[in-house]
Specification:
Its EC number is 4.1.1.15. Keywords: Calmodulin-binding, Decarboxylase, Lyase, Pyridoxal phosphate. It is an enzyme of class 4 (lyase). InterPro entries: Glutamate_decarboxylase, PyrdxlP-dep_de-COase, PyrdxlP-dep_Trfase, PyrdxlP-dep_Trfase_major. The chain has about 500 residues and is an alpha/beta fold. The protein folds into two domains: about 45 residues, no CATH class; about 400 residues, Type I PLP-dependent aspartate aminotransferase-like (Major domain) (Aspartate Aminotransferase, domain 2), CATH 3.40.640. The protein is about 45% helix and about 10% strand. It contains 16 helices and 13 strands. The strands form three sheets. Strands 1-7-6-5-4-2-3 form a seven-stranded mixed β-sheet, with helices on both faces. A four-stranded antiparallel β-sheet has the order 10-11-13-12. Strand 8 and strand 9 form a beta hairpin. The termini are far apart. Bound molecules: pyridoxal-5'-phosphate.
């Protein structure tokens, strides 16, 4: 009796310790553990480790949605076990996706007759959408070249050097040459005139970006369209335009309805948009819309019928979750045109608050535009003493994640910091961020610059001063981290830290 009482007491004491016995020994990292563990322990172990991730709400590096209404969270959880591809089994989910495609096509002014339905598909994000759009252009161009008896083995795409990495992926995976229009200091988007100059008989499309990832600026799609119409007339080619509206596709229709960038322009044959950016849905949804049925070659569409009825599909993968499609439908009907307009206007206003706050410090050049994607991209007026990478690094201490990156060629000598304004980045947070950036600058100013450190290290008498030495080494460490990070970014030559 006594023995068993002791045993049960020790059990209680183990369970009442926060780090239960399961958490005391670490699990193997790369091999599946031999034995099972209780669900509570598994939860605790994973939850604890995840606490060390950044806070998504303070992640100002990303366009991707980090907050949705609890009602929508409920719908997402309720559909988490539905495979989207089982269209015959979940016909309502399929119907919701089709409604989304049509709503978005109308938003982009697709030329649809009253009884016509839009041509488009839901994807995992803009990357998949862009692969599909690119494949359609490639196939259409090949078909035309074959019919004309001309070689069709050297397709190319013309873009700005500011394209998102998914275009480079498309080019490499699907063997299309990427011809990039170089940027220059002070001009960080594709120059339409130069783009049209680069177009040749092998160009499958020119890709314009509505909302450059680097500084949020909208490219001039209308000018591109007009110049290309002329070039096509002169040459007899038929070069089309794709608009990568990953971020801007859910902004322009609501706050710049007059701006002509979409299917109102005759050469725009397809458009992609990320539902998970300003479409206001959590990560995992994008859309691609084609102007007409003729713009999507029939031979790319697969008809699958072993799950029931005939299902036309055009995607890169097969199975995927349904939740994001349902969540997109929720946002479209819950917010409506009015709601999206309010959200986008609010983001724009918060962007202005942040931009003006940064301008007031007198330390930054603003390289984003007021009428693009609501973000502020800015660089230090004087980065000889301290760099943008150091500002970024030091802001982490306050919890802010603000990326710094170098611009692509030929503007690679410019480094910028970028803050994306999402729906959940409120006015209060904007004001606090300005405050914390001021504190950061103040702190950086009080530290010796790199040049000063070198001279102090050389001078012998300061070596005796412990305080100076200690401060120096902490700063040196910080500089090493910054240098390593910069090297990493430079080597990749791409803006992998931002999306
Ligand atoms: C984010 C982004 C992409 C990639 O989109 P995902 O939805 O993340 O796959 C492509 N192009 C631009 C301009 C983007 O901003």
């Amino acid at each position: 009796m006594v023995l068993s009482k002791t045993a049960s007491q020790s059990d209680v004491s183990v369970h009442s310790t926060f780090a239960s016995r399961y958490v005391r020994t670490s699990l193997p990292r790369f091999k599946m553990p031999e034995n099972s563990i209780p669900k509570e322990a598994a939860f605790q172990i994973i939850n604890d480790e995840l606490m060390l991730d950044g806070n998504p709400r303070l992640n100002l590096a990303s366009f991707v949605t980090t907050w949705m209404e609890p009602e929508c969270d409920k719908l997402i959880m309720a559909s988490i076990n539905k495979n989207y591809v089982d269209m015959d089994e979940y016909p309502v989910t399929t119907e919701l996706q089709n409604r989304c495609v049509n709503m978005i096509a109308h938003l982009f002014n697709a030329p649809l007759g009253d009884s016509e339905t839009a041509v488009g598909v839901g994807t995992v994000g803009s990357s998949e959408a862009i692969m599909l759009a690119g494949l359609a252009f490639k196939r259409k161009w090949q078909n035309r070249r074959k019919a004309e008896g001309k070689p069709y083995d050297k397709p190319n795409i013309v873009t700005g050097a500011n394209v998102q990495v998914c275009w480079e992926k498309f080019a490499r995976y699907f063997e299309v040459e990427l011809k990039e229009v170089k940027l220059r200091e002070g001009y960080y988007v594709m120059d339409p005139e130069k783009a049209v100059e680069m177009v040749d008989e092998n160009t499958i499309c020119v890709a314009a970006i509505l909302g450059s990832t680097l500084n949020g600026e909208f490219e001039d799609v209308k000018l591109l369209n007009d110049l290309l119409v002329e070039k096509n007339k002169e040459t007899g080619w038929d070069t089309p335009i794709h608009v990568d509206a990953a971020s801007g596709g859910f902004i322009a229709p609501f706050i710049y309805p007059e701006l002509e960038w979409d299917f109102r322009l005759p050469l725009v044959k397809s458009i992609n948009v990320s539902g998970h950016k300003y479409g206001l849905v959590y990560a995992g949804i994008g859309w691609v819309i084609w102007r007409n049925k003729e713009d999507l070659p029939e031979e790319l569409i697969f008809h699958i019928n072993y799950l029931g009825a005939d299902q036309p599909t055009f995607t890169l993968n097969f199975s995927k979750g349904s939740s994001q499609v349902i969540a997109q439908y929720y946002q479209l009907i819950r917010l409506g045109y009015e709601g999206y307009q309010n959200v986008m206007e609010n983001c724009r206003e918060n962007m202005i608050v942040l931009k003006e706050g940064l301008e007031k410090t007198g330390r930054f050049n603003i390289v984003s535009k007021d009428n693009g994607v609501p973000l502020v991209a800015f660089s230090l007026k004087d980065n000889t003493r301290h760099t943008e990478f150091e500002v970024s690094e030091m802001l982490r201490r306050f919890g802010w994640i603000v990326p710094a990156y170098t611009m692509p060629p030929d503007a690679q000598h410019i480094t910028v910091l970028r803050v994306v304004i999402r729906e959940d980045f409120s006015r209060t947070l904007a004001e606090r961020l300005v405050n914390d950036i001021e504190k950061t600058l103040h702190e950086l100013d009080s530290l010796p610059s790199k040049a000063d450190i070198k001279t102090t290290v050389a001078g012998e008498e300061t070596q005796k001063n412990d305080v100076v030495v200690a401060k120096k080494s902490a700063l040196e460490t910080q500089r090493e981290i910054t240098t390593a990070w910069r090297k990493f970014v430079m080597e990749k030559k791409k803006t992998n830290g931002v999306c």
